[in-house]
Specification:
The complex is a heterodimer of chains A (about 70) and B (about 140). Chain A has one domain: 434 Repressor (Amino-terminal Domain). Chain A contains five helices and two strands, in the order βαααααβ. Chain A has a two-stranded antiparallel ribbon. Chain A is globular. Chain A starts with 6 loop residues before the first strand and ends with a strand. Chain B is mainly α and about 140 residues long. Chain B has one domain. Helices cover about 85% and strands about 0% of the residues of chain B. In chain B, helix 1 runs antiparallel to helix 5 and helix 4 packs antiparallel against helix 5. Chain B starts with a helix and ends with a helix. Classes of the chains: A mainly alpha (about 70), B mainly alpha (about 140). The interface between A and B is medium-sized, with 19 and 14 residues.
Chain lengths: ~70, ~140
């Protein structure tokens, strides 16, 4: 089991709140693969700042509503 | 499984298979007196087989997911490739140094050639193996 990274996120929750958007659809919208979206949701990958902003933009929320420090 | 991981599996399998065939061939050509010299035709056949299997494997992988195959690697995939390449480079460097050290004791040019050649192959195998491990388990 890979260790979880300290940056938590609400990506999955926001996807589900946005008409059950799939990981592939979100990946296409921000320019990453479905596997990378899955890794972000599982806290196995911390996206670059640019991708983090893109994800927040897709959901039309501020960055801090998507990503937060969990330690 | 993403296309980059499929590609790593294809290359790993191709390298292991072709290296096994190559070194089996070298051993069968060798005698009790010593190693067979590196032969250009054998190397050419090895290279052609490697390229053909790799191309066919990648076409098969691309047919399974054409959309992903056309996309450039994303930021995570690039990071994984960079990390694997860096660590595999150390493995290859160490093995080449080892091959050079063996030469200093054996003065066998043939052994040096095979040692360096094997180092290159093992370095590449390590790179694809590490990529697969990172794709599946790593936290980046």
């Amino acid at each position: 089991m890979a260790k979880k990274l300290p940056i938590g996120n609400r990506v999955r929750e926001l996807r589900e709140a946005h008409g059950a958007m799939t990981q592939s659809e979100l990946g296409d919208a921000v320019g990453v693969t479905r596997q990378t979206v899955a890794a972000i949701e599982q806290r196995r990958y911390s996206p670059t700042l640019e991708t983090a902003f893109r994800i927040a933009q897709v959901f039309a929320v501020p960055l801090e509503e998507v990503f937060y420090w969990q330690g | 499984m993403g296309f980059q991981e499929k590609s790593a599996w294809v290359m790993l399998a191709t390298l292991v298979l072709t290296a096994a065939l190559y070194f089996y061939n070298v051993l069968s050509l060798s005698t009790a007196d010593g190693l067979a010299p590196p032969l250009l035709p054998v190397l050419l056949v090895y290279t052609v087989i490697l390229v053909v299997i790799a191309v066919v494997g990648h076409i098969a992988a691309a047919l399974m997911s054409p959309k992903e195959a056309n996309a450039a690697p994303d930021e995570r995939e690039k990071q994984i490739a960079d990390r694997a390449e860096s660590q595999a480079g150390r493995v290859m460097g160490f093995l080449i140094m080892l091959s050079l050290a063996v030469y200093l004791f054996s003065y066998s040019g043939h052994l040096l050639f095979y040692g360096v050649f094997a180092s290159l192959i093992i370095g590449q195998v390590a790179e694809y193996l590490l990529q697969i491990v990172y794709f599946r388990t790593a936290s980046l």
